């Protein structure tokens, strides 16, 4: 699992005599084999939101390491800031929010549908107009930031035509 600042890794325990070393970002963490049966679970903290990490796991017996296995995992991106309605008329609402970076796209949910929105070139806010709406109606929009197919927790906005 992952959130904005941590990734939890899980793997199968080999036996009580085998420990592990986890490498990522130039650091190494020694992990003892836990007592009992079941998987080994380790949470890596203090990570940066919306970032891809490569982890290499080695099993260790008597200070001898295995060849290791690597996986890539990403932290959830941060939510978009400044999510607001900027213009509304009888049949449309224009939404606006702050761009995060060029690698983060967005998904807008409302009325049971989802719209994928790419991160625009350049600086400045992201603007998206939702049309074909009904006059005098309240709509709830949920905006997710998306990085490497992982969604943020989402922010909500209610706006009326």
TrEMBL record:
Sorted UniProt keywords: Repeat
Fibronectin type-III domain boundaries: 1-79
Family matches, as CDD domains: FN3
Listed Gene3D superfamilies: Immunoglobulins
Regions annotated as coiled coil: none
Signal peptide: none
PROSITE patterns membership: FN3
Name used for this protein in its record: Fibronectin type-III domain-containing protein
Source organism of the structure: Poecilia formosa
